């Protein structure tokens, strides 16, 4: 947690500067398709956007709207390649655990071939984004923000109480989405759980910004985010298997993998109330 003399504006700008450095340093690694580089750049975009949105009451109105939009755009441009990478790794690993009668290694290799082809199709979008004027403008905008922060007078308030209030607000926001998802009918439940995941991620990033004093809050929100992420991965994998199965020479194996996704999604939903209960305690936000 920031020291007693630290302002909320200083905490916010330190967070933005740290993630801006990460983002700026990854262009070459992403172009070279280094392991995990796309993922790290996407996470940096999300952390920056989350900070700008969560702390917007401390920034001049409208001063970061374009930057938030550009960060969302870059994360989306990276998303298709990264999501396909994660999906392929998930399905290939599960395929290798199938019974011998399913030809597990053969099925895993087929899925990996499919994944490589999907990645190649998505890759031009990544390089086009990095080479675009919009990417250069994004970097320039971050530099200007850091050089002349558009902070409102309230950003001079002590960091501790402000961060506590923000964390509590994000916790409540996440809770509303979790409860809405738990009450949703089956036809809208998956989308509602995905929205709850995004809220948990934003709450986690708020805890990260607050620092070590918020470690328990951050840890609980991360656990919630990861559980809901497992659910979303299972939902996406099931939809992909449904789409790809008709063209696969291994329909039985794909059916077995599909059943695993349904079971994984159900297991995540069953665990959700308990994981949320551990993330919902009021004492978690008392780190100011």
What is the strand content? under 5%
How is the main sheet built?
Answer: none
- Work out the radius of gyration: 21 Å
By helix and strand content, what is the structural category?
A: mainly alpha
Residue-averaged pLDDT: 95
Helix percentage: over 70%
- Net shape: globular
- Can you write the helix and strand succession as a string? HHHHHHHHHH
Question: Kindly, what is the distance between the CA atoms of the first and last residues, rounded to a whole number of angstroms?
Answer: 7 Å
Q: Using DSSP, what is the number of strands?
A: 0
Tally of DSSP helical segments:
10
Q: Low-confidence stretches at least 5 residues in length (pLDDT < 50)?
A: none
Task: Please tell me about this protein's structure.
The chain is mainly α and 288 residues long. 77% of the residues lie in helices and 0% in strands. It contains ten helices and no strands. The chain has helices at 8-24, 27-31, 37-54, 65-95, 104-130, 133-147, 159-183, 186-210, 215-244, 251-279. Helix 3 crosses helix 4. The longest helix is centred in the N-terminal third of the chain and has 31 residues, at 65-95. The protein is globular and about 65 Å long. The mean pLDDT is 95.
